[in-house]
Amino acid sequence: MREHDRLFIGGQWTIPAGTGTIDVVSPHTEEVVGRVPDGTPADMDAAVAAARAAFDHGPWPRMTPAERAEVLGRLSAIYAERQQAMADLVTEQMGSPILFSIFGQAALPQMVLQYYADLAATFTWDDERPGMLGPVTVTREPVGVVAAIYPWNVPQFTLMLKLAPALIAGCTVVAKPSPEAPLDAYLLAEWIQEAGLPPGVVNFVPAGRETGAYLVEHPGVDKVAFTGSTAAGREIGAACGRLLRPATLELGGKSAAIICQDADLDVTIEGLKMASLMNNGQACAAQTRILAPRSRYDEVADALAAMVSGLTVGDPADYGTEIGPMAARRQQERVENYIRIGQDEGAKLLTGGLTRPHDQGWYVAPTVFADVSNSMRIAREEIFGPVLVLIPYNDEDDAITIANDSDYGLGGSVWTGDVDHGVDLARRVRTGSCGVNLYVLDPNTPFGGYKNSGLGRELGPEGLNPYLEYKAIPRPTPA
Ligand code: NAD
């Protein structure tokens, strides 16, 4: 049992303003495994004040990028050394299979941190340009105090997409973990202290939606960075629009995997294990619409059903597990509700369904529906669980039309024997990323969504821009 009765504010373990607590429940055992304070608006006031003071008067924004990179390098080294502890903790609190956690919940966040620490050396922080009346210095300045709000599915990754660029830019941060997965923030806060970040540069206040909404509108905040549902993203975007406060929004998805006529089916099906079902299907970029040519539909259906029905479902801490429990009971109910909707809509259940694989824990059976039309709710709405829909297409133009007939535009993939042709097809898919014969997020390439999947980009040099203000300093040509 991990009990925390303090909040990390201003570099100190601070007594919270309220008495409310959040219980963290293991999705596998359904037992309470941790407890943290439930942050209140008064705690947000204290955290924003600390971040404000660190930004307005502290050393962090005044250090050079190279000096900040050195501190972040220390944090990255601590992270790299102890990432197994982070992976174990995230698996315990939200049920991610340990093999996925080691990569997605620990190694990848550390790589993102190291990427931005390294980027400081090559990024253009200042440049000189010829102007109409003389030279102009164009400089990049940190945007200020950042509110970082993130979800439970990949908490360290979605946090680090914001924290690492914000910190290298010279911003200070108030981070709000979700109530389902607040424990990893405590481990990171210890490492932040150990690495010697100045007080107030990073602050954590776990809390629910209302306190999150309070943070978004706080007058001391200069920028909001959010990952979560499209519904919450709309509310946050609306609030930021009213306040003219810049916001980056990484939202939901319903991505398509296009299986081409010439695809190697063994490679494809093995690739979809990760691309479609990573993190128990609780991934925004999961490719849950599988598009197969009519000529190969039955073959694809058989192979997909065989793969999904053969997945090992169980204790996420077990190294043999491929699918663990859903992170929350309400998530289990939501996924099961979509399975019911699929059956009511007349889709054909190939494997899975409503029989739970285990009585204890928030498990759902990995499920595949065939004979799905792209107009069905199970093809249009984000389920956020291990439920795949198989949609037939006539020719490649039809496949592209179906892939793009979505309110979302986050990820996707093309599976083909001809990689160049795959790249041509990927260019026609209206999403922020589309892999060919694989799907992966690289720290040095941008990630984000078209349409209802969000606004702005994270990762890569593009992911640093939202944390910078650009300033032009023109002056007369020297005599
Ligand atoms: P959610 O939107 O309910 O919550 C996300 C976070 O925002 C939580 O910390 C929550 O407390 C907070 N929050 C919710 N409403 C808020 C509001 N009005 N103001 C301020 N804060 C608010 O999402 P969830 O159910 O926790 O996470 C799942 C969703 O996240 C899925 O839709 C998934 O696609 C999305 N997601 C997107 C990405 C991406 O990069 N595009 C990555 C991971 C998850």
From TrEMBL:
Substrates-to-products reaction catalysed: an aldehyde + NAD(+) + H2O = a carboxylate + NADH + 2 H(+)
Keyword Oxidoreductase included in the entry's annotation: yes
GO function terms (MF aspect): aldehyde dehydrogenase (NAD+) activity
Keywords assigned by UniProt, alphabetized: Oxidoreductase
Residue ranges of every copy of the Aldehyde dehydrogenase domain listed in the record: 17-473
Family: Belongs to the aldehyde dehydrogenase family.
Name of the protein this chain belongs to: aldehyde dehydrogenase (NAD(+))
